[in-house]
Structures are given as structure tokens and as C-alpha cells.
Amino acid sequence: MMRELFRRRYLDLLGSIYIYNEHRGYTAIDRVLEAVRLRWPDDHAFIARIERHRADEFKHYRMFRRWFELRGVMPLAVDRTCGHIDRFVGIMFGSAIDDLDPSTIVRRDDLFERLCRVISLTEKRGHRQVEILLRHPVVNSDSRLMKIFRIIEQDEPSHWAPYDDWLTAHARRTTSWWERTIDRFIHGELLMLKLPALFLNPQLGRRTTWPDEHDPVARCEGARLAVAS
Ligand SMILES: [Fe+2]
Ligand SMILES: [Fe+2]
Questions:
Q1: How open is the CA angle 130-179-120, to the nearest 5 degrees?
Q2: Whether 78 contacts 86, CB under 8 Å
Q3: Residue 59 to residue 151: CA distance in whole angstroms
Q4: What is the average pLDDT across 127-148?
Q5: Closest Cα partner for 27 from 80, 92, 76?
Q6: Fewest beta carbons less than 10 Å away: which of 41, 54, 183, 199?
């Protein structure tokens, strides 16, 4: 009984942190895309690779949403303190992702290359984490979740490649030891401090809406539907 409660809580929390991060992933890439289209409108190959990355993260998001729908519960209301990329961008740029202005980033090459390194490290971290989860007994007990993580494991390497290739092609340095240290710190903090705290927090409620219901496009479509009806 205790064991089953523990298992359910663990999976709920894991799925909630993942759906948050996948959603944050594709919405953050939209900002990167905006910046790249402004700065290098003719670099169709680079733009296409980022678009594929965006499509993948959206696909991951949809898989977790489906997983929750089949469980019959909404995700737990975890916030951006559980977002790896949120914390990383916060530390590296001193501001939230949504406050980063794409037109500022593209005017400054040093900011854009920093962003490439942050994305690359985040994706590599994600890949290593999925490999750990695929060996985790609680995750192993959920065949649908295993299927999702196997797909993510396959997809991830193509996610960091465009940014690493951009850095190489423009003769920019790749990640430094201190950037890797920050990445490790954020991950450790999430695993050792935030996850246990959320696990034990009885106040942690569930979301009442799906994250994608708040996307700008979804809002526009909603508005169009409202006008049409
Ligand atoms: Fe993903
Ligand atoms: Fe990814």
C-alpha cells in the first residue's frame, strides 16, 4: 500500500516536471527561432534544424500530456523553479527566458553563442538523465512511460547538434568547465533539494489547465473560434 502510494507520487512528480520542461522547451525555442530568423533569414538549413528541434519538443510535450490523460489526472502544479533551462538562462543571462529579447540576442554574437551553449548543455543533460531513468525500477514499472523515454533517448542527440555545429562553424568556443559546473549544480539542486521537497509537500496542487492552452498561438486560435461562433 505504502509502496504503491510512493510509486504513484513519484511518477506523478516525474511526469509533471517533464511536461513542464518539454513545454518550456518548445516555447523557448520559439524565441530562439524568432531571433535566428531576424539575424540570418537566409540560413535556411540552420532554421530548418531548429524547427525540427521545436517539433520534437512539441511531440514530447504531447506524449506526456497523453500519458496524464490516460492516467486521468492533471499534472502537479510545478513551476519554473523546476525548469532546468529556466534556471540556466536565469543564471547565465540574469533574466527570465520570457524577458530575453530576441532582437537583443541577435544583435550581440556573444549572447547568441552563450545561448547555443546553454541549449546544448541542457539537451546533453536531458539525454544522460533519460538513460538513468530507463534503468530506474519505478519507471520500469510503467510501460507507457518507458516508451516515451525511449523515444526521447533517440531524439535527443539531434537536439544539441545544430547548436554545437553553429559554434564550430563560426569558430566559437564550446562549453567551458564553469558552464558545465553551473549545469551540474542546477541538476543537483533539482534532484537533491526540489524533488524531495515537492514529493513531501502536501500543499502541492494540480494544474487546472494544460500548459499549451496558454500558448500565444492557441490563444489566437481560441480568439478566432470565439469570433467565428
Ligand atoms: Fe524533449
Ligand atoms: Fe530535447
A1: 45
A2: no
A3: 10
A4: 96
A5: 80
A6: 41
Q: What is the pTM of this model?
A: 0.90
What stretch of H or E contains 72? none
Tell me how far the alpha carbon of residue 23 lies from the centroid of ligand 1, in angstroms: 9
Nearest ligand to residue 24 Cα:
1
Distance 228 CA to ligand 1 centre (A): 34
Q: Phi then psi for 76, rounded to 5 degrees?
A: -70, 150
Residues in the chain: 229
CB 99 within 8 A of CB 80: no
Ligand 1 centroid distance, CA of 129 (Å)? 11
User: By C-alpha distance, which of 97, 48, 91, 63 is closest to 186?
Assistant: 91
Gap from CA of 179 to ligand 2 centroid (Å):
19
Q: Distance, CA 66 to ligand 2 centroid (Å)?
A: 18
Strand partners, 206: 76
pLDDT tens, 159-204?
A: 999 999 999 999 888 888 999 999 998 998 888 888 889 999 989 9
Angle between helices 143-155 and 44-71 (to 10 degrees): 170
